[in-house]
Design a protein that fits this description.
Layout (H helix, E strand, L loop, with lengths): L1 E5 L1 H12 L3 H14 L6 H11 L8 E6 L15 E10 L3 E4 L6 E10 L10 E7 L1 H7 L6 E11 L5 E5 L4 E4 L30 E15 L4 E8 L4 E7 L9 E9 L10 E4 L4 E3 L8 H11 L2 E2 L10 E11 L3 E4 L5 E10 L4 E7 L1 H7 L3 H6 L2 H11 L3 E10 L6 E10 L2 H16 L1
Parallel strand pairs: 6-8, 12-14, 16-17, 20-22
Antiparallel strand pairs: 1-2, 3-5, 3-7, 4-5, 5-6, 7-8, 7-9, 10-11, 10-13, 11-12, 13-14, 13-15, 17-19, 17-21, 18-19, 19-20, 21-22
Helix pairs in contact: 1-3, 2-3
């Protein structure tokens, strides 16, 4: 297996020759690309990305310099073929089946997140992999922590210009090969939260240190746990979602070795991070968190009691009303390729009516069932449960957004519960007392 000598000057000259653009302009594009990636890629890597975006074939100026059995993630670039790697599995997404456009028949795909221990300043050491067709079934058998040997893979850029590994027809995969070992402790380059600004998609995987400011949700079963928390460093604050995190406490400093930023829905200005590795406790206090940024995030998280007639796009609201209609759930795949479901229903509070959208566990909470039951129950059982919740008084918290299709406001539900008459009377009494004053 060859590694490659990439001459920056030759790549630049090749781009200039093919595009007929000035050297000053090309160098500016490269500098801007390095800035976009927050300094996490080298000048050589930035030049290769610019060449790709300018549709310039640079294979003639990329030369093999040495031969060995396997490469590391840090040595990969777009367009490589027949590469061999040994990587550790961080995450496996469920298998997707699709209809092939150019050829008849069905296709299969399993996406995985893989890593090695060679984390350099200009490389994450973490990469996504696409296991196609005959390899997809094999991918479903992999679990977090497995070692995966890939022989004959190839590389390409995804839609966000992030490098991906692909297992094609000639690729050979082997799980947990004998006499092959890579460290279990994997880490991506460390960043500050402020680098994950709204709309920032340049950094695919990263690590960071933060303090737990508030635990919003913590759920634990015999097999797993899930936590959603507000975290902050000295530059910013974010929502962190962690699976199988163990016991955590507010005020603790933690290190997240590998994570990625989730794509936000329109109008959502929060930074939302999902961890792909076990979080680590940090004993010393490395910094003072930015309380100003925490307060800004808290305002985006808080819910204000409003009448439906008064809600506006972007509001985080709490609504009490009657569930006048509920529609049957629809199963779909989310952005992480995981199976999920969504259902919707109208809530009427006497001032107006608004559509509420319940995803996953929120739909399950509304129907007092778990997700597994909803995925497996037949149509008649689901219809029966839906009939039982129509007409109930509910308390809904969520974010108001504009439906792109209907052009009407709707509430994306964060939590739903049956309204408590005693609590509602207390709220009404408090509001009446304030009005009298």
């Amino acid at each position: 297996m060859s590694t490659y000598d990439i001459s920056f000057d030759e790549v630049v000259e090749k781009i200039i020759t093919e595009t007929e653009k000035s050297k000053t302009y090309i160098l500016k594009l490269i500098e801007e690309k390095m800035s976009d990636f927050k300094g996490l890629i080298s000048q050589d890597a930035a030049a290769l990305i610019v060449a790709k975006e300018e549709e310039v074939d640079i294979s003639s100026v990329v030369k093999p310099i040495k031969t060995r059995e396997t490469l590391t993630v840090s040595e990969l670039f777009e367009g490589m073929k027949s590469v061999n790697l040994v990587l550790r599995v961080l995450h496996i997404y469920p298998m997707k089946e699709f209809t092939k456009k150019e050829k008849k028949g069905k296709g299969k795909l399993v996406k995985a997140v893989l890593a090695d221990s060679a984390v350099l300043a200009d490389s994450t050491g973490v990469i996504s992999a696409c296991l196609w067709n005959q390899h997809a079934e094999f991918g479903t058998l992999l679990t977090k922590g497995d070692v995966l040997m890939m022989k004959g893979a190839y590389t390409r850029m995804d839609q966000k210009m992030h490098l991906e590994l692909h297992a094609g027809n000639s690729t050979v995969l082997e799980a947990n090969p004998l006499d092959v070992n890579i460290p279990k402790k994997i880490s991506a380059p460390e960043i500050k939260i402020e680098m994950l600004s709204e709309g920032s998609e340049e950094i695919p995987y990263f690590s960071f240190i933060a303090q737990i400011m508030k635990i919003v949700t913590f759920k634990k079963t015999e097999d797993s746990s899930f936590a959603s928390m507000m975290v902050a460093d000295n530059t910013g604050a974010a929502v962190l979602r962690v699976y199988n995190c163990g016991e955590i406490k507010e005020g603790e400093f933690i290190r997240v070795p590998v994570a990625y930023k989730k794509s936000n829905r329109e109008g959502d200005k929060r930074v939302i991070i999902t961890s792909l590795a076990d979080i680590e406790k940090v004993g010393t206090i490395p910094f003072k968190p930015s309380l100003e940024k925490v307060e800004e995030l808290q305002k985006l998280q808080d819910y204000t009691r409003k009448y439906i007639r008064d809600i506006q796009k972007g509001d985080y609201v709490e609504i009490r009303g009657t569930l006048v209609e509920v529609f049957e759930p629809r199963v779909f795949e989310n952005e992480d390729s995981d199976q999920n479901l969504v259902m919707s229903g109208y809530v009427d509070d006497g001032t107006d009516v608004v559509m509420n959208v319940f995803f996953g566990t929120k739909a399950a909470s509304l129907l007092s069932k778990d997700l597994e039951w909803l995925f497996n129950a037949d149509e008649e059982k689901i219809k029966s449960v839906i009939r039982s919740v129509r007409g109930k008084e509910v308390l809904v918290k969520g974010k108001v957004q504009l439906n792109n299709y209907s052009k009407k406001l709707e509430v994306i539900v964060a939590s739903v519960e049956e309204a408590n008459p005693i609590t509602e009377l207390q709220i009404l009494a408090a509001a009446t007392s304030q009005s009298a004053e």
